[in-house]
Amino acid sequence: MEPAQKSNGALTGLVVIIIILIIGGIYLWKNNMNSVKEAENPVVPIVPNSANSIDAELNSIDIEGVDSGI
Fold this sequence. Notes:
- With 70 residues, this protein is mainly alpha-helical.
- Helix content is 60%, strand content 0%.
- The chain contains two helices and no strands.
- The protein has helices at residues 9-40, 51-60.
């Protein structure tokens, strides 16, 4: 009788899966680092803070039709 030969297929598959998971983790980590850098420098629109512009904006709001949809 010949001795049973061991197959390395399961071990090879496990190594391939681990390598794919490591590469995917590095990819996600790098993408997360890029989004954090973009969030650190947000673009803030310049809004005039004068009392006249605030008053004009408040006067232009139509509050009469707010409850018409109810």
